[in-house]
Each structure stands twice: as C-alpha cells, then as structure tokens.
Amino acid sequence: MATLSDPTGPIRIVIVGGGTAGWMAAATFARFLETGFEIDLIESEEIGTVGVGEATIPQIRLFNDALGLDEDAFLRATQGTYKLGIEFVDWLRAGHRYMHAFGAVGRDVGLLPFHQYWLRAQKLGSARDLAAYSLNNQAALAGRMQRGPARTARVLPDMPSAFHFDAGLYARHLRRYSETRGVTRIEGKVVRVDQDERGDISTLLLEDGTTLGADLFIDCTGFRGLLIEQTLKTGYDDWTHWLPADRAIAVPSERSTAFTPYTRSTAKAAGWQWRIPLQHRTGNGLVYSSAHLSDDEATATLLAGLDGEALADPRPIQFRTGKRRQMWNRNVVAIGLSGGFMEPLESTSIHMIQSAIARLMKLLPGRTIAQADRDEFNRQSDFEYERIRDFIILHYHANDRSEPFWQMCREATLPETLAAKIDLWRGNGHITREHEELFTEVGWLQVFAGQGVIPAGHHPLADAIPAADLAEFLDTIDQLNAREVAQMPSHADFIARHCAAP
Ligand code: FAD
C-alpha cells in the first residue's frame, strides 16, 4: 500500500514515533489542524519508548488547557500527583537542602524586586531562609496542596503547580484524544527512508511494505533521530564538557508514606538521584558520569537511596547532553529526544516538546517551506536550549563538595552567557531575563541563593525602608504563608478527594 502526498489534497504530516513527543504533537495537530490536513503517526511497539520523564513544570497546564483536557481526569488516567517545586538535597554540601519552588518569592515593592530587600535584611540579620517567603515552598515542605487563589488572595500570590505523572499513561491518554479526533495511528517499523532529488524526505518504507509520503515529517523517534540524524546527518552540538553526566539508571519503587508534592533531587558522589512520587509508585533514577562511577556502583547507590521496595529491575539509559545543529532541517522537524537531550534536573524536556510544538504551530508551513521559517524556528530553539543549559550548569558549578566529579564541575569553564549572569548577580544582586528565556528571575534567585552564591551588595533603594519596618514586612509575609498553608489539605487527601486513580 502506498500513501503519497497529493498536491491537490490535504497537506500531509507524518509523525514518526509515539512516545511523549509524538503523541503531544499528534494531539495538538488533532486539536488545531482540523481541516486541510491529514495526520498519521507511526510507532513501533517492538522498539518501545524511553519510558522515563515523569516530572513537569507549570507550563504543562497551558498545553493541557489548550487541548481542553480536564485536570482531574488527566491525573486519574496518568496516576498523576502535584508538584510545587524541586528540593535539592546535598547539592551545595552534604546536609544542606533548598527548594526551587514555583511561583513568587515574597512581594515586590515599588521599583524593586523582593530579593533586594531580602539581601539587605540578610546583612542586618533579620532575614529568614528564602523558603519562608514562598507559599509554594512552605506548602511543599508541609506536604499540603490547594488549587486556585490563596485565601488571602489580595496579599498572597497564586500557587502555581505542575504534575508528576506516568509518561506512558500520558502518551496513552493523548493517543485516545488524537485518534478520536482523526489522527491515524500506524503500528510498524520504518526500515527505509527515501529522499527526493533536493534531499527532502519523500517516503518512508515500513517493515510490512507500506510506503508513506508526506509534505512535512515530524521526527519523534527519540535518541535514534531516525530522520533528522540517521538520514539527514544534521549534526549535534555536544555539551558534555559542561554537563558531563552521560548515563542514568531508573527504577520504580512502591509508593512511599512520604507522599511529597515535590520532586526531590539528591546529589551523590558522581551525579544525582531523582525521586518522583506518583499515585501508584515512586519513580527513581540516578544520573551520573560514567567516567567517575561504574554502572554497578551506580546501581548500588540508586538502590540504597530508595524509600520503598524496588518494583522492577533497574534500567540503564545512555545519553549525550546537547542538541541537534538544526531542529528543523529540510522537511523534517525534530521534536523530543530526537532534537536533543537536556538532563532532567529541572524537568524541562517535556516542556521543550511543548514549546517546539507551539513554535511549529506558529511557523507552520503549507506545501512549500520558506528557509526563513526554518531559520527562525532554529534560532528560537537554540536560544531556549542554551539558556536552560546555563541554568542547569549553575547547579553543578556552584558547589562546595569535595569529590573529583564535583571539583571538576566547579572548575569547568562556563558558557559566557552564564558567566555574565553570575557576575551580574554577584555584584549587586541583579538578575536579568530576556523575554524568551524559560526560567524567571525568581527561579535564578532560588538557585543562586540555594547554591550559596550571595552578592556583595544590593540595590541602594532597599536601604530606604527603616530596618524595623523591613523586619516586620518580612515577618508578615512568612506568617501569612504559614497561616495559608495551615488550612490546606494534605497532598494525599487532596488527591483522594479530587483525582484518585481507580
Ligand atoms: P521515545 O519515548 O524514545 O519515543 C520514541 C518513539 O519512536 C517510540 O514510539 C518508538 O517506537 C518510535 N520509533 C523509533 N524508531 C522507530 C522506527 N524505526 N519505526 C517506527 N517507530 C520508531 N523529561 C521531563 O520533562 N521530565 C523528567 O522528569 C524527565 N526525566 C528523564 C529522565 C531520563 C533519564 C531521561 C533519559 C529523560 C527524561 N526526560 C524527562 C525526557 C523525557 O523522557 C523525554 O523528553 C520524553 O519521554 C520524550 O521522548 P520521545 O518521545 O522523544 O522519545
């Protein structure tokens, strides 16, 4: 059977790959390209998916909302839980912990961001840890959860949350959504890729002899990069000199009594371990540098750090942090792991799938592709990747740990963009953000402070408040947060009431 592109028929898009990336792309096309397009998705059960990717950031809500997914039904279908931030344990040094919580920290006053007052109060000895001034942080540590505006909404900000979920179940949820809206799923393995005289992909040959042509191909084949790399030889920017971890071992464990509404990341001798609580189990994994730790040592470290019985054999995964030189090359757009790999420290990969899809929807080509559209897509993708990379490097760079891996991370030359950001902060506590950057000033603030990078000075306007008033201002925020958190249900009760999986 041959399905080829017909210049008088609908525009054909073929997605290769049915992991998180493939089904997120399919669901978006199903929702927004109702007429004039024909969408096929090819996936191979025999090849399978990478099977990890359980923690998200609050932007996932925009994606689910755009599809019109009901939050409770989505959480029930994916064994999902809430995530208010990420706790970093032992990153600065053993025994130290801090949280990168979502949402605001304190309240900005006049021209100045809150942290300028906090920096001054620190010097006066009247400041508490940043955690006290973040509603999300206090709620997370107390194991509480609430939706909607704070009770004292006039004074306190909203409590943004993201989700932990089973990525396989999320893909299944999106598959149901996509298939009922006209996406055709084809089970099969692509065994040959043909190009036309210009070099564009023309047809895919499946193992059963089926031939598929399209105007646009979305490569969601994971680390393989079947179209973008194996066929188009696009090339890869390797960032392992900045982010040297190149392996992970993942294992699920039984659900723990510590049903935390946050991800935990614990630094280890040559990497770090994640802990992600879902409704039916806890997801765990160790990310590490194979130059500093053997696979056996990594497995032993992982298993020793579980807070419940392992439910399966540990599964190894290899990767190389970096990105494709072009995410959109010829008539192929790489989305997901085929486009690049960012280690999951700040749970950004699913977000990057979502933003790549949004970018593609904005620049969606018809039957002819303008080079300027590809260039713009690639420029925006590069910018996003590089700025997220910088944020992740900061966690590794600013540490006081003694192991060789951590010394190496501390001493590695930084990307210029990150070095400039650190210098600006170290001086008088300034943080700037270009508008396309993912992480906000408050994200950078919490990681700078959490990793022990404290500026020499602060903005002189922060000196305008009398010291006693400043102390009272900070205490009031802390107390309001604590009062708000005290009336919230526990995370476990919240899930049981609204979205417990059957
Ligand atoms: P895959 O899931 O690998 O899917 C590839 C698809 O392509 C499969 O369906 C496969 O069958 C198909 N395929 C491949 N070749 C062929 C062929 N020849 N013919 C037909 N079909 C083919 N992200 C987060 O946001 N949060 C996290 O907490 C997180 N943790 C992670 C931890 C680790 C250790 C790793 C490695 C990644 C993590 N990620 C995380 C990233 C996340 O897992 C991925 O971004 C996400 O799963 C998307 O994967 P994918 O769909 O690109 O690839």
Characterize the largest beta sheet: strand count, sense, and whether it forms a barrel: 7 strands, mixed
Estimate the helix proportion, in percent.
25-40%
Strand order of the largest sheet: 6-5-15-16-17-14-18
Can you tell me the CATH architecture of the largest domain?
Answer: 3-Layer(bba) Sandwich
- The top level CATH class name of the largest domain: Alpha Beta
What does the overall shape look like? globular
β-sheet strand percentage: 15-25%
Specify the oligomeric state: single chain
- Count up the domains: 2
Bound molecules: flavin-adenine dinucleotide
CATH superfamily of the largest domain: FAD/NAD(P)-binding domain
Mean pLDDT: 96
- Number of contiguous helices: 15
In short:
This protein is α/β, with parallel strands linked by helices and 502 residues long.
Walk me through the structure.
The chain is an alpha/beta fold and 502 residues long. It folds into two domains: 2-80 and 165-237 and 322-386, FAD/NAD(P)-binding domain (3-Layer(bba) Sandwich); 104-161 and 399-486, no CATH class. The protein has helices spanning 20-32, 60-67, 71-78, 114-124, 135-142, 167-180, 226-231, 295-304, 349-362, 371-397, 404-411, 416-428, 441-450, 467-486, 491-498, and strands spanning 2-3, 11-16, 37-43, 81-83, 85-89, 97-101, 162-164, 184-187, 190-195, 201-206, 211-213, 216-219, 236-238, 247-254, 263-268, 271-277, 281-288, 315-318, 322-324, 328-329, 332-334, 340-341. The chain has a seven-stranded mixed beta sheet. It has a six-stranded mixed beta sheet with strand order 8-3-2-12-21-20. Helix 1 packs parallel to helix 6 (167-180), helix 1 runs parallel beside helix 9 and helix 4 (114-124) packs across helix 14. The model has no long low-confidence stretch (mean pLDDT 96). The site of flavin-adenine dinucleotide has 40 residues, from helix 1, strand 3, strand 14 and helix 9.
